[in-house]
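Shipment paperwork, digital attachment
Item: protein structure file
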Amino acid sequence: MEVRLASERGFCFGVEDAIELAEDAVSKHGAGRVVALGPVIHNKQVVGKLEEAGLNQSGDLKTIDSSQVVLIRSHGATPQTMKQISDRGLNVVDATCVLVKRAQNVVRQLHDDGYHVVMIGDPNHPEVKGVIAYAPVVTVVDSDTDLEEALPYRERIGIVAQTTHSPEHVADMIAKILRRPFREVKVVNTLCLEVTRRQEAAIALTKEVDVMFVLGGLHSANTREMAQLCRDEGTETYHIETWEQFDGSMVVGKKIAGVTAGASTPEWVIEGFIHNLEAV
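Attachment content:
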């Protein structure tokens, strides 16, 4: 089968930095002594390799003692969590993505400047949970229903977005918010350009292929969104983690397959998938 690969795919710099920091911490402090507050990134294969190397990803701050090192994962942590770490005098390695950290600072600044903060994002995503904690009150919206039921009227609102959301979705939500009678609306772009480039490359590839495969963790927000964008283009699309989830029926009657991957997907997963798919 002919396989075409998206020009932009796989690891972003934030993920690369987080993995490198985790590996260096384990190498420096020893296996079992570095504890991450949850999975470092949303990719089971990478998480598994880090655990094999000796990283503990239990995510339970209460069980960490002074002989261990706390690793903040790429999605960041709340200021309350950071204060607990500081108050206990624990050693910390902060692997928060720089763009997530920027979003945290923007939310704090908007609140300090007198805006009611609105975040466009998934309220259950760890990045969103961490970011909104940087202001006392933040309204999270991600759908028309949220706008109708959750968005309160305030004279001045400041809008940010989950870094992995698509520009199209965020723009659509902002347009709908602007139809409401707010006296002032301030929008700060907190989207990740790396993710946007991967989304654009995936959409472009859908025009050339009969079927799309989007590789990445099933819990990865940016991978799920990329797969949905491909489906929205009318191309049959499958979101799977590895070759083991491939089924021959996915390519019956297809001649050209497109492959891309989320920002948390390692190159070795992509290469292995392509190698197998080309042999079909």
